[in-house]
Please model this.
Amino acid sequence: MHRPGGLFPVRFPFPVNVPCTSPCLARFDHLGRVSARTSISNTASAQEQATWRVNGGAPLISQSATQNGAYDRQLTATVWSFTGSTNTVDASGSVTIPSTSGFASAFVANGYAQAIRGQLSCPSIPAVGIGRVSDYGTTQGGSQPLSLYLSIWSFLY
Model:
């Protein structure tokens, strides 16, 4: 223990065991959505790709689009855990325009939405509420930001 004058040991008369996990399972419902579109003209090229994973596992969604392509994919998953749960979206895009092409153009845009709804399942303690967390973002314009937000809203509530 730190006190004025230095550090002083604190002795416990018996070992202290503190569990690092809950004695009860929790249910975690996950939502993942990825979207993108690419556009090119003349000799340009464009590529966009995205993945969505739960708890760092294999991608549950893996999408890609090239040239004048697009995707919009949504999926849900449920896991049970004593400790917690995560999901991850990874997305990237690129365009290439040759320096010899004066009239070529390329464009990529993407978006994502992810959410987790968690609820403890433990008969030994009083019921607690549902925990909710979400995130979304997009470089796509038009109605896509609202569409992503509404995906989250309808999933969580």
Q: What stands out?
A: The longest strand covers residues 25-41. The chain has a mean pLDDT of 88.
